[in-house]
Design a protein that fits this description.
This protein has 735 residues and is an alpha+beta fold. It is globular. The termini are far apart.
Length: 735
Amino acid sequence: MITMNRRDFVRATALATGGLTLCLDTLAREVTSATRAVAARELGDFLRITPTGDVLFQFVKHEMGQGVATSLAQILCEELCADWERVRIDFPIADLPRYQNERNGGLDTGGSCTIIYQYDLLRKAGATARQMLVAAAAQQWQVPARDCVADNHWVIHRSSGRKLAFGDLATAAAALPVPTNVELKDPQRFVLIGRAKAAKLIPEIVTGRLQFGIDVRVPDMLYAVIARCPVFKGKLKRFDASAALKVPGVRKIFDTRAIAGPQHVSFVPHDIREGVAVVADSFWAALQGRKALEIEWNEGANAERSSEDFERFAAERALVRDDPTGYLGDENALADLSRVGKILRASYIYPQQMHSCMEPLNCTAHVRPDGCEVWLGSQAPNLVIEELQKLLRIEQSSIKLHLLPSGGGYGRRYYTDMAVEAAYISREAGNVPVKMLWTREDDQQCNLAHHFQHMEYQAALDKRRKLYAWYEKELRTYTWAARYQDPTLPSMAYDIPNIRYDFEDLGPYELMQSSAWRGVVNHGKALSECFIDEIAAELKIDPYQFRLSLLTPGRMAPVSSDYSISSDRMRGVLMLAAEKAGWGKSMERGRGMGIALAPYASTCSCAIAEVTVRQRKLEIDRITLAVDCGRVINPSGADQQLVGGIIWSLTALLHGGAPIKNGRAVHTNFHQNRLLRMNECPPIDVHLVRSRDDRPQGLGEMSAPLAVPAVLNAIYAATGTRIRRIPLPAEIHVV
């Protein structure tokens, strides 16, 4: 007898009535012949339509709470001319041959590129399916297709008024050849793109129908946890499992040294810590078994180091000049004593941060002699399949990866370690299905983290007290983009005669594995906005007016050989934010406003923070945000993404950091690694620029770096105190 839980019952009922909402089979069972009778008909890539008329959008990217599934569905539905209420999000099996290519945009989700890459593809997919449905109706009526039109889930014959529903046409349309040329809608006729829509998956989430990785149940499944070395790069010396094996429910215990060490995965290399896996009948039994383990680690040199040691080392390296990574004008302009009247210097530090995903990392895997099945919420299923192919030495076609949403990704779920660990444990435990789980303490103490950045700045004023030269040195512990688009110049649009950028990789010396984090390298780079404020203060120029003076109208500021920033777009968001925030209004002592202006890829953003400092305590009164992200698909989702990014930034400002002592993470859970509380969150006003760009640009990561420099600048305006490192001190000195 097969037991069925509530989620399975809801899904089976939906299948029986034809109202399919999710194609994912939670128990990995074959569907019945009765279900096949109402099977969805494929109309090219990305789309299925059931005979009952439900449109199933094949969502091959990763939904991690950012709402991108809704936005992509809007694009498809717009061109399809479907009824928005009849559209469902479908999470299929990862299909590399079909989707991991330029034609269909790939399966990976990151870099705020999903909508950028999928916009044209989904418009074409929707228009193609619409044309096929129209052709099927015209064929049935024996009329020219040009005399028919699709509208809100119907195909209508213009002259007679006859109409057929999409569901009635799905079978016939799927049998037609896929057209090679299709006509896209005129954007002036859009009815869904640009309209605010609630997230499609909310009903599935609140009713429990949507399955996350942590929800997965498969027959005969076991559970596993891993005791990982608490010190990065440490080794397993020995372990005794005698007591642990006596814990009721514990099945097997073995080490994971075979899969530990550096993982050279595409452009996201990372490290898997050595450890000991405990496999049991339940998560609780596995956890108790892990507690009973006797383990001795060879902790290595990192056990003698702390965050303070590392920051001192970085500060020493910051004073060393090598050949520049890139420059404009004279690379040695600061040394030209005939021109330079004064040099300003400052150092800013953005420490490592934890991802703190609400759904702890997990993966369920079942390795068999003939293949492998995996249930995982991953931002890079393509990389997961590639790594499992290498680990298990099987063909990619033998790996079935169920695409699942996740409770937060933020870049952490781009890595493959959880899948590699789960598959290895499944195989070593005897080719049985195993759910491998991280606890919250594992997440805080043994996880990958956002990279460390030390930003060293110098500015030269000439004899007329004009900004003559800019020097920036970045020291960072993570260089994932170096193979692709690490900039050769600072990421700013300011027109300065001489600019020099130096870079140094601190990765070999880090005490915690660095990784991508929402906003990636831009958090530290945005601190240049604090140094811009320092220059404005020295020159006694209003920070807003100073920025405007440096943004030359019509100029495209070079950052690398294939990337430049529009000064006009940067001016646009700066002026809009200043207008909406009321920049220049009179403020009493202890209150101040600060600006942060930063690009991210092709999106331009500006944040203005308003703060009050009373009795050395900070109150953040308001954040005003202006963003130019091109065409906006879903204004509601855009607003939520931008607000979320600001909250993310404020969390790092007030509570962030991942301190290390004796090689070990100090924080163990949320009582130490705090997240922003509701009472700490200020009003956040979002304003989207009416862009002349007809195409959408990135949005998910754009606002995350902005609040830190904006608030730091506002604190200076309110108190006269410069703070150059986060998180903020408990008390703020007032000059």
